[in-house]
Amino acid sequence: MSTRDGSVWASAAPAPAVLRAGAILDALADARGRALSPAQLATAAGGIPRASVVNICAALHERELVRAVDGGFALGPGLLRLAQSYLDAFDPVRSFREQVSRLGDREETLQLATMEGTDVVYLAVHEGTVLMRLTSRAGARLPVTCTALGKAMLAGLDDTGVRELLADREPFEARTPWSVTTLEALLAEVRDVRSAGHAVDDQEAAEGVVCVAAAVPGPPPGGRPFAVSSSLLKSQATPVRVAALAALIKDVVRRMGAAA
C-alpha cells in the first residue's frame, strides 16, 4: 500500500542497490531458514548479477541483517531488532499486549492483525495454555477473504468499499473446500459481521479449525484497521463455545479501543 502520494518524497527515485537488497532479503525469507548460495540468490532475487549479490550481502552482514553460513547466506538476527521496533511503533500492538496480559492464565491463544491491501498481516500473538499448532506467527499473511480477521476488518468498510477493494480478485483463493470465492457471498458474510459485531471463519482458512475475530473499535490510526482473533478445533466449536470466545475477544477489543 503506497504512502508516497502527496508526501515530500513523492518524486524520489528508489536506489537500485537498496531495491536489490530488499529482493535478496525477500528471497532469504522465502527460503524459510535454508541457506542460499550467491548463485541461488542471484536467481531467486530476479536475476541480480552474482558479484552484486556478494557485495550486497557483505553490506547486509555488517548490519547483521544476513549471516554467512556454509554454502551461502541466511537471514540475520538484526532483522529481529528491526521487526520488534516496527511492531512496537503500533499503539494497538502495545495496547493488545497490555490487555491480554490482564487476562491471566487462559487456554485461548489470541492474535492481533491488521490489513494491508487484500492481506491480513499478523502483528502479535499471545499464547494460551493450550497451544494451537496452526497459530499464525507475527509477520504471516493470509487473504482477507477467507479469514475471520479479514471479514471483521472488511466490515468497517461499506459495501462499495469492499467491492472496490476486491472486485478484480474474483474468484478468491480457495484455501479449503469451505473458502468463500465470490464477492457476493463474501459481502453477505460481511453484512452478518456488522450485525453480530464479530466474524467467524468456519474452516475457510484451514480444515478442522474455526476462528472467531472482532475489530478494534474507534478511528483506525492512519486509516489502518486492526482486529483480534482466536481459534479452536472444529470438533470443539459448539455454539456455546463460539459465543464465549466471541465475548472474550469483544471485551479485549473494547478495552483496546477505550485505551486508544
Automatic annotation (TrEMBL):
<dbReference type="Pfam" id="PF09339">
    <property type="entry name" value="HTH_IclR"/>
</dbReference>
<feature type="domain" description="HTH iclR-type">
    <location>
        <begin position="15"/>
        <end position="77"/>
    </location>
</feature>
<protein>
    <submittedName>
        <fullName>IclR family transcriptional regulator</fullName>
    </submittedName>
</protein>
<dbReference type="InterPro" id="IPR036390">
    <property type="entry name" value="WH_DNA-bd_sf"/>
</dbReference>
<feature type="domain" description="IclR-ED">
    <location>
        <begin position="78"/>
        <end position="260"/>
    </location>
</feature>
<keyword id="KW-0805">Transcription regulation</keyword>
<keyword id="KW-0238">DNA-binding</keyword>
<dbReference type="InterPro" id="IPR050707">
    <property type="entry name" value="HTH_MetabolicPath_Reg"/>
</dbReference>
<dbReference type="GO" id="GO:0003700">
    <property type="term" value="F:DNA-binding transcription factor activity"/>
</dbReference>
<dbReference type="InterPro" id="IPR005471">
    <property type="entry name" value="Tscrpt_reg_IclR_N"/>
</dbReference>
<dbReference type="InterPro" id="IPR014757">
    <property type="entry name" value="Tscrpt_reg_IclR_C"/>
</dbReference>
<dbReference type="GO" id="GO:0003677">
    <property type="term" value="F:DNA binding"/>
</dbReference>
<keyword id="KW-0804">Transcription</keyword>
<dbReference type="InterPro" id="IPR029016">
    <property type="entry name" value="GAF-like_dom_sf"/>
</dbReference>
<dbReference type="Pfam" id="PF01614">
    <property type="entry name" value="IclR_C"/>
</dbReference>
<dbReference type="GO" id="GO:0045892">
    <property type="term" value="P:negative regulation of DNA-templated transcription"/>
</dbReference>
<dbReference type="InterPro" id="IPR036388">
    <property type="entry name" value="WH-like_DNA-bd_sf"/>
</dbReference>
